[in-house]
Amino acid sequence: MSKRLDGKVAVVTGVSDRGIGGAIAERLADDGAAVTILWMERPDRLIHRLERRGHSFVEARCDVKSTPSIKAAVDACMSEFGQVDILVNNAGIEDVHNFEDGTDDVWENLLDVNLLGTMRMTRSVLPYLTEPEGVIVNISSVLGMAGCTGFGAYSATKAGLIGLTQSLAAELAPRRMRCVGVAPALVFTPMMQRHLSNGDTSMEESLNQSHPLGVGAARDVASAVAFLASPEARWITGTTLPLGWMPSFPLPFGQPDTAGQASLHQSKKSQAEKTSPVKLPVTDAAHAPRKKESEGTIEPVLPIADS
Fold this sequence. Notes:
The structure is a single chain. By secondary structure, this protein is of the alpha/beta class. It has a single domain (9-191, 211-243), classed as Rossmann fold (3-Layer(aba) Sandwich). The protein has 9 helices and 9 strands. A 7-stranded parallel beta sheet has the order 3-2-1-4-5-6-7, with helices on both faces. The two termini are 27 Å apart.
């Protein structure tokens, strides 16, 4: 049976076993694409799954802060497949701190990976990107659309990606190539797990208010990327799609834990109360809230992406 990405070659940066990049690479492969997965820490479990399913792929270490590293990764893709049809700029890092506590080194590192890394990768791939119908997908964040305490530097880099997406789409349109983005709200990945595990009731309420469909899973982002990268989205360019959030819903606000010890919003509750993890509704039916027969209540359960 023909798949919508048959014959396509995709490059995905920032791939890990349980993160968004790994879910995207796996979904594109399932949809028929040959994939080049670029990583900083080798995603052994993902590679095993791709091999087991007989998917066509190459994998390489790639530091998006280094132009020579990027060139070597692109060369590996071209040597194996001879083309690039889809580039997914997913590589990114975060740092949570009050604005006044941010140092030049922290800001420069975030910019170097999240924004300049995307620029370097795109510049290196563009000479090989299929014309027409080549697609670039930038992974931004809802925090690039609306601010949140403690995420000033991170938000700035992700907002930069939205602006880059718009401008690059205009430049590429005459060549019938597209540039689009997605801006996920909270997705349950290892990067975000530490913010949820120590949360209190106030934080839980804020998150529930700003995520009307619940916290997302990495595969939710992957599904949106697969659509936007496919010929089905051939009339969509220059836009960044919010996922799990809409502008009429507030983002959660709270005080960040700059020492990495507390939650985004720390209350003065008893230590026993603080040890209970935040539980939120989720989008995946496979991880839907379970009903406790003895109590007749609903217990929300968080998914673990790529488990």
